[in-house]
Fold these 3 entries.
Entry 1:
Amino acid sequence: MAATEKEKSPKPSLTPHPLRPLSEEELVRARDVVIQKHGGDGIVLFFRSIYVDEPKRDDLIQFLAAEHAGEKPATTPPRQVKVWFDLVKDGVPQLTETVVDVEAGEVRRSKAFPPYCQTSYTLPEFAMFQEACVSSELFKEAMEEFALPEHMTVTIDPWPYGGLDPDENIPRYMQGLVFARDFTNKNQDSNHYSYPIPIIPVMDVATKKLIRIDRLATGGTGDSLYPSKRGDKPKKLFEHAKPAEYVPELLDVPQRADLKPIDVTQPEGASFKVHSDNLVEWQKWRFRIGFTPREGGVLHDVCYENRPVLYRLSFSEMTVPYGDPRPPFHRKQAFDFGDGGIGRAANNLKLGCDCLGAIHYLSSVITDTSGKPQLAKNVVCLHEQDNGKPHIRRPNKKK
């Protein structure tokens, strides 16, 4: 008798899987090992990311082959966690990568990077930029060149700066794009991008001090890259500008009222099954969902009818060049994965906004700058969509 599809699919292994999600306990254990190894008097550890150090491919393939065959793996790759942090001594940070075997409680390898190597920014680093600007006399003097309407306030978007020459020890910089925002509508989603102020403050991240203010060419009649002379009247900005809003509640046009509600329901639930170690089974497919601070969602060991299709699938990078080669516009091009970490900036997904129907949410554990675990809730949602074709309905069983 031919085996059924259920019999063909291997049962989830009782052995803890090497690709299982990082737990809070593992994160704390890795952090404590790093502190014991690298900490000391006069040393501050600034933690950037802590996540699973995936096993070597050859070792993992052997484990997966046994799993696919429904056999007990001969060996299980060690459970290792990668820790990225700045080792700060005498105010000088050194980027360090350490891999910890959390089951043995030991450091397996550690590497300190030279000063010209810079990793991604953390959310606290981005967050401190606004305060550094508004408290800077350099920034205040630059803003005195402009006169804003009374109903507007200043808002600053922190941006990665990028490097100049990889062979030079360039300080770690951050830049800001400055805009005005209409605060009278009391809506945080009001579009401030329609009111750009033509300056870019540049900050040294280590000192948290502004080092200069760059000027922008605006294309306006008589506009210059050079600041106004002292004694000149402030240049009036946005006197005749009109808002360019995009959120429905701020638009001056009537909203459409001819669309009726669409409810996506699955009264029998979803057709997929998610196991505790993030193994997903759906029809003839099976795969594992991982999550890293840099990449966000990652798919591992994608199989169809138990045949391996993909070993690992993730986005490596995303960037949007804004198309103006004139300095300093050319620096307005973030590498969204490498510069900030798409996983660290992942949204907390919500029903009806990002996913529909019968949804399964996956959360992840990340670290704060002190190395303590933080729950990134609902950073992945799993749901089903059809392609519009009619479904064959199973007949109801007779009672």
Note: The first helix runs from residue 5 to 8.
Entry 2:
Amino acid sequence: MSFGRHIEIRGVVQGVGFRPWVHNLARTAGLSGSVSNDSAGVVIDVFAAAESDLDAFVARLRVDLPPAARIERLSWAAIAAMPRPRSFDIVESSRAGARRPSIPPDLATCDACAREIADPRDRRHRYAFTSCTHCGPRFTIALDVPYDRATTTMAPFPMCAECLREYEDPSDRRFHAQPNACPRCGPSVRLVDARGRPIAGDEGDAIAQSAALLARGAIVAIKGLGGWHLACDATAEESVRELRRRKQRDEKPLAVMVRDLATVERLAELGEAERRLLQSPAHPIVIVPCREGPSRIVAAVAPGSKRLGLMLPYTPLHHVLVGDVGRPLVMTSGNSSDEPIACDDHDAFERLAPIADAFLTHDRVIASRADDSVAFVTLGKPVVVRRSRGYVPGRIGLARRLERPTLACGAHLKNTFCLGAGDSAYLGPHIGDLDNLAAYEGYERAIERMERFLRVRPEVIAHDMHPDYLSTRYALDRCAREGGAARVAVQHHHAHAVSALVEHGLEGPVIAVTFDGTGLGTDGTSWGGEILVADVATFERVASLRGLRLAGGDRAIKHVWRTALALLDDAFDGDPPLDRLALFDGVPQTEIAVVRRMIAAEVNAPLASGAGRYFDAFGAFGLGRPRASFEGQVAMAWEQIADAAETRPYAFAVDTAQPVWRIDLRPTVRAAVGELVSGRSASSVAARFHETLTAATADVVRMIVRVRGAMPVVLTGGCFQNVRLTEGLARSLGDSLAVYIHGQVPPGDGGISLGQIAIADATLRNPFPHGGVPCASAFPAK
């Protein structure tokens, strides 16, 4: 007779070598039974001669996990006495039951596989699809769950005898590695022209020939894990400029892939947190400060920037290619400006033909689009600002279970959606700006795929309050088309605040400093410089930046001189010294007069309180830059030019006589202009602006605490990608208050869908909460 336990494990436990690890653990301990995948995780039935042996086994399950595995929940129940099995086996996966996608994100090439592809004696030498249970594609090749080879795009590639032996050997590193393959049986690469005609012969020649083309200045389109890249030599000014011209990407920084960490160290200033982030299983693009002095990376890669977006090779193909070229490569998304990254081959050849000189492709299908993720480090911790490859579809645990399955549609810019059921939420991959049909269609397909993985049919659909966002229109159209789901409109900045609460498991209330560009407020104006007191169910707008008129609406976001003019006229009562500011030297007087009339008459000049607009306006007149070629460009430049040694704030005011307190930076504007026209450096003025906004915000937070009592503070919204602002506020408030910043959930619009999920659930539980302003409005589907 024996003792037995049925163990259920939930988390990232499929596709990461978990079952073979359990198998070897059990056999080493002399136990019998079985382990299998199910649709929610891993199930173990284990038997032993003594209860103490089972106790020890359960304890060991939490120790020394496979590198990419993560246990979120482990539960067990005793099995009734029965004859003990003779062996411990890995059995076929079960497809029954409620699903949760324990498919892990794509994993960067592990050290063992990297050594194999670099070893001329190894059968996988230079093989572009080398992987094992600890690395390789996962989410981007998955067609369904459970995660087995038959439900991936590796299904068309039957394993050869040697690969099958590895796959079936519990002691092998490739035991049940679903993407396992070798040059004999797996996918292969080829180099072709825009019409699909071969340029090189076998796989080795294809990569070597691609490297030779890149070294000669060519632009090569490369099929990666979750989409296509456009690559060129990052040390060749002419090549980078030509890529920008063809891609129609004037000044926005380009990502660079380098061979190894030692190369990164020569290019950038790194701390230990940056090193860990660069080498993490996600291998994101990491935004790092450049080293001073000459650099191999040409200025055209990141014009005017003191930072670079660098990443290490994360697939075998990248390792071989970057090694062959022997120099850093621009590795930017395979698209034209404002389009989604190309994913399938036909789309890539059609859209990238005018850009690329050659195409390095392969015959493994990409099932799910996933751009490279982007992150940076502040306060010694990583902050993900674009969450996609390497992070999706990682589960985010919810402190409060959702009453009904919910889809949150996200924002219009930097969109991600979120799907939630029970105690789990899943942010979808980065979609980007929903500005065109291709992006919108990709958004629809990504939602359909995630719903299929989860077997979830949303009963609640949450969306932003703005009626013109395409994500809102998706929600309206879907509810009208399908019916049966409740529809919840959520205020943009409350969603930002709650995304931070959910990430950190906070109940609230909190003081939420919510700084971004624009978002529709409950009063019909554009918000974005808000200090809220919020919990998941309610929020109160306690304070805000003084509103500015945006002449021409969204046109002012690119033509930042318009926002600067509104700010200056407001601060100087209509008589600023424009003739002494370089910003207006190139702006026709007739245009200035027209914009002033629009502002005065409040015609096509909506009021906006966005902190991002203040960064634009100050940066415009401080730097003399009338136009931004991409969103946030002037604000980024204004941050980077700020003098680190300057810590004095300017004067400011806080008007507490109104129901919503107003942070008034008109004194700041007057002082800053006075310093600029008297010859003070822009770097000093930029630093003092940052110090002023930090000091004003911290003062208002302390005023709220004096009235309401101490509460945690969350810093959220796209402006908290600004390191100086984030660190300044965290340090100013951190002595007396608990301050939380984002980490795994983007602080910008890429994270608000998580907040929408929780708010929609709270709204439907209690549509008319007491003690606060309703956070959202709930509508039945029509």
Note: Residues 394-490+748-780 form a domain with the Nucleotidyltransferase; domain 5 fold (CATH 3.30.420.360).
Entry 3:
Amino acid sequence: MIKIESKPIYTDYIRLQNQEQFVVYPPLLHPDDPRYTLFWSKEFKKCIEGTWGKMFDGYRYMPGKLYFYKNYFLIQDTDANKQTRYIRPRTDDIEWELAYMALEAHGFSGFLDDEYTSLEIAKDMPEPTDLILQRYPEAIIDGKFKKYIPARENIRKIHDKPKGRALMQNPTWNEFVLGTRGGGKSFSAAAEIEHGIIFDGTTVYNEDFRRGKLTSEYLVGSADSDKSSELCSKVRASIEAKTNPNFRDIFGIWGNPGDDDFTPSPLFKDMTGSLVSPNKKNPYRHEYKVQLGGRWVTKGTNSKLYHVNYSPKKGDGAQAGAGGRYLKSIIEEVGLLENVIDVHTSNDSTVARDGIRFGVERYQGTSGNIEYIQASKKMFLSPQDYRILSYDNEHGKEGRDGKVGFFLPFYMVLRQFKDKDGNTDYEAAANHVNKIREEKSKSSNPDVLREEKMNRPCFIEEMWVNPKGYLLPYDEAVVRERELLTFDKYKEKETPVTLIWDSKQGEGIYNGVRVKINHDIEPYREYPIDPSKRKTPNGTVVIYEFPQQINGKTPADMYRFVGHDPYVEENLDKGGSVGSTYVIMNPKYAAQGFNGNTIVASYIDKPIGGLAEYYENQEKLLAMYGNPLQGLCIEKNRGQDCRAHYIKKNKAYLLMPSPNREQGTNIYQKNVTSYGYNVGNKIVKLQLAKMMADWLLEETELNDGIKKNIERIPCLYLLRQFMSYDLDGNFDAVDGFRGCIVALREYENLQIAEAVIKNENKQTFRGLLSNPKIFKHGKEKQRV
């Protein structure tokens, strides 16, 4: 088993053989030579429909876009002498994987001459209808569907013979490629755009294409136009190189500029327009003018490339691509695009016509540039929610239901460890990575190794590394999140409720509070919150375990650890925070068979009624759990409104006095008129984070066995904030939960202090009893 550091790496990538069979050097033929037309017709067909090559006693299919990329696209390369030049790109294992991803995403449904089909409707439809027979004849034999085989399996397999061109009749999917720097993602994307412009988006070499009846549109954008401008410049450079005699042996250019018979490559297209963002009014397009009958006539297929800026700093940045219909929409450096989900929502309709998808959105980026990570991470780890082509996660622990986008690990882009056919020597590549990481680990600055992993990750979780490191248990939070998401287990844990004051006795009433289950209100689960995706902006009280009783009553100290993070009354849709409250059962009750040391309830909300409504609901929650004496722990410098509410209600006894031990003051000095704990600076925040991390990793034995506390966290919103937590951001759930842990540690310290005092008093009393000057022992009698 090959490992990087202590983790095994994924090595089941495609294997290749005889790649030289796909390399073509066009003969230098005059355009009037009949062989010229014959050769280039065949090349056009291969670039559009793909080709087959002999490999491993069978045949492997090479997609047309990959064939074009290998032979007719140029990239920059720097040689051993530090000289930079344009060369043909390599098509190693990773390029084949990306090409196969694109083929599947664009709707691959099988091969023309195959006895199998990958048409999705053939998987579940027992008999083809007349409409299906008419629309998909390639998937039918003798009036029945061909045997179904999944698209990915069909694309990747070695076939017994060439099976003809690829059929593209399935619905399209989106692509999400994320990973290391230096992976060639932009070059392959640029080649795909050029391919689309030159061949007008066709997948069949037919008369419609040859007569110029087809057209296609492409879209490129990013949060920073400089990032997407680089991709656009690669498209232009490769197109214009097809008129450069220096590349005549690659592109079949005849003669030199100025010659009467100078002829650019047949792959060249005259382009006009701008590539400067935004270029909606003057897109880069195939258009030229010719003089016919004494007047100038516009010619060309009008296949075009739009370039937009999605910057969230622009009010309508997310809608920059709206209005068009694109065969491919490419979002560059997606890690910099904090509004990427809004971009997706806007662009979703631009790759469909009359409700039928024909185009693909491609998101791509490098992990080292992930500054606004949450939205990109959410899409990458939940691909099914955004119609993103998903893969089994073989690169770590993350991913909803084990599915992720396409991850590009560092060890797969190390060209020096690939053979002549482009196959990776995994052991050599892993050794190289291990040596780099070992050297980086010697630095006294831990950021050196962290940044190495973030910029050149080998496992998915390394992409999200905070430059300052994880302050809370990241890996454990990922595992717990995945466990809750599996089969929607989180829904079994949570009961959303509305609380109503009710002094009667009866079922569903707890300590004067009636509980009404309310599934119409959706608890906060996603982080960051996207109000546009919620049925209602309101949160709700969530019960994970209803109040327990001993001898018919809820003990006053059973739920005495309640943490609360206040909020200011900002609009949620403008990024304002929410109020959060968590309730933990006293650990001491675990010894009596209860679920001590676990979260039993939460209240995350920003109600329409403002702070007054929030604290009224919080007050009901506290009453429901027995009005824990001095149980509500808040931040001292942000809890004015909370304190005022409970003082006004004559319930100041619910507020926890300012801690004495956890924040360094003398245990015997207590100012009971001071409530809440201090969070005055980053040093204190760091100490409190360490306190939370320690508790999360501590073990508690309950009826379900011995587990770390984080393994019983029931709240997805809280877990997702654990994964992102730093000292600078707004993490309302973590801050609310932090109050529980401060209260718990203060309680423990008080118990220890009381035990110490009791023991000291006991020892003092024993000393007095044994003092012969005070008491006489044995047969002597005390004098009275």
Note: The domain at 478-751 is CATH 3.30.420.240 (Nucleotidyltransferase; domain 5).
